[in-house]
Amino acid sequence: MNSVSFTEEKKGLKDILAFIRSELKPKGKALTPFNMISAPIILLGAVLIVIRFTMGLGSVTNLSQDYPWGLWIAFDVLIGVAFAGGAYVLTFVYYILGAEKYHSIVRVTILNGFLAYAFYSGALLLDLGRPWNALNFIIGNKFGVSSVLFMVAWHFFLYTVALLIEFSPIAAEWLGLKRARKILGSLTLGAVIFGIMLSTGHQAGVGGVFLLAKHNIHPLWYSDFIHVLFVVSSIFAGLSMVIFEGMISHRVFSNQMDHEHRSSNNDIVIGLGKVCAVVLFVYFFIKLLEFIHGKQWSLLNTPMGYWYLTEVIGFVLIPCGLFLSGTRQLNVTYIRAAAILTMAGIFINRFNVCIIAYKWYLPLSERYFPSWMEVAVTLSIICAEIWVFRWIVNRMPVFRESPEWAIEEKTQEKNITTRKEVPQWKVSAT
Fold first, then answer.
1. Domain containing 210 — which CATH number?
2. 4 within a domain of the structure (yes/no)
3. Per the confidence metrics, is the pTM higher than 0.70?
4. Please, which pLDDT band fits residue 4 given cuts at 50, 70 and 90?
5. At 6, is the secondary structure helix, strand, or coil?
6. What DSSP designation does 96 have?
7. How many helices (H) does the chain have, and how many strands (E)?
8. pLDDT band at 227 (very low <50, low <70, confident <90, very high)
9. Cα(101)–Cα(98) distance, rounded to whole angstroms?
10. Which domain holds residue 294?
């Protein structure tokens, strides 16, 4: 299918702006069930955000000095970043390892990663008591170089830029900017390599922050290797999100996909399921070694111990078994069910580390529980991200084929690369 884009190279900014204005018009039905549910949530969230910035954090949250991190950090940073891990994993598999069969899902995965980082970085401002200091790590007003969050902030920022560069050829194709598409396309591989290093770094950095809270986190969830566990879990979390998103997109955007895209979906899901099975087992093995080394057997026979076993068995071992069974039997239903369970396990694990197992020794009356306003703002951010995702997919060649001129350009680039890779002795022999 042909995507909606310029058919000729546009020379003036006026033409581009006119085209963008025309694309801002709604496409399809406005009064859909999703729109009718999500629009009020987004409006409510916008009102609450205004209240938060005018009246302070205490006006909408239940945060305190004892619980400085709540729902927004747990979801926006810990969970959102883990689910966005599919972008760095899949770009590594496709661009570095050259696994061509994942071609059809690379663009949508990059888009998901970029939107996740853009929205969650913005949402992070909500949780800062002094949001005007958010750019200190860039402008130099007390850099805070001794803080783990200094590294995390820079990695967040630079990785978002890397994802933007990876996605920019798609926008250039949509706008018909042939020269820009060629230049931006040449930057993709470098952005991918740079992005992989950044993403693994801040995945570990986010987990590393909890190394500072050893005495406040329950021993079953605290680990000297928590940064390693965060990196490993981001691999199967990100790929599970890719599987889940693909399941939804093949229902909602199937009209934009060609036959080859739809027919290759099962093979792609099975391939992703194999990776998830292996990485989940590695994650479980690390947890098991750590548990045995820590000699924490007595903690299992406690309410928190039962909850820990529920997390490890119900949302690590069982999904691992389902992934393994699904890949052996070529059953995508098992794999999709395992992906959903894995995503639920990431939710539970991150909430455990950040909220539930944090200062578990306090009575319930002194524990943190998110307010309904925190929940409403979080839901509004999710809905807004889905709206932006839908707007982009309905206009840019994410699922659709690229314009013919872009396909020809990519074919020429691939042929040039192939010729360069042919050994000299083979050329001489011919």
1. 1.20.1630.10
2. no
3. yes
4. very low
5. coil
6. I
7. 18, 0
8. very high
9. 9
10. 39-413
